[in-house]
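In the previous lecture we treated proteins in isolation. Real proteins rarely work alone, and many bind small molecules. This record shows how such a complex is specified: first the sequence, then the SMILES for copper (II) ion.
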Amino acid sequence: MKTVMTIMGLGCLLLWVGCQNQSASRPVRDATTTATVKAKLAADVRLDTLTNLDVTTENGNVSLNGTVESDELKRLSEETARGVSGVARVINNLQIAPKADTAKVEFIDSTGKQVGTASLTEESGGGVRFRLNLNKLPPGLHGLHVHETGVCTKPDFKSAGKHFNPEGKQHGAENPMGFHAGDLGNIEVGSDGTADVEVTAPQLTLKPGENSLIRPGGTAVIIHAGRDDQKSEPSGNSGKPIACGIIEKAPFTHSAIHTTR
Ligand SMILES: [Cu+2]
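The predicted 3D structure, ligand included, written as tokens:
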């Protein structure tokens, strides 16, 4: 009998401890509040500007951790979280970290077949870096330019217009009156038809401004059939366009909000 009583007592004790633990952490209520805060931040604060955000809630206190792009967004995130019912206090630990401007290009050839991509990044000291990954192209040197219209209509890509030239200069780095901001020189495609190259264009930007690649009507990158002599008007005797891709601001993804809890 004594043993039974002891076992029952132990059982009650374990049950009590279990209940105490559960009520102390309040997992259900806090998870719900956290989810509501996250949903509200996603709806009210532009997702693509929240780069790495972590939300936790304990007893009505919401902690915001991670990075946002500006002071304004830090304030806005806090204000949004405070507006959620059940939130008593917001602990704002957000760090400010401006995100690099990026853009992307998907190239097609004259038949419309995909022949590679380019990733564009704003350099911290100015200019735009182009990282090109190309395939199924003729081996050899090819002139590479940014053209002034973001339309790639096959097969001749005339739709992309002239070279992007906001400063009204002449063509080519070797031209004393040069060069067009969109002149990117030559790239070399290997015997296997691929190229993995980086080119930096000092005059270009992805930020707002005269020389911005992100503009009404857009811009496009064109690969020409032949080598650019970097001095002849209007496009360095580089032959006809063989591939074209529109420059597009890199899209945000829902992974913009990383939740670990
Ligand atoms: Cu061109």
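Summary for your notes: Confidence is low (pLDDT under 50) at residues 17-28, 252-261. Residues 50 and 68 are 5 Å apart (CA to CA).
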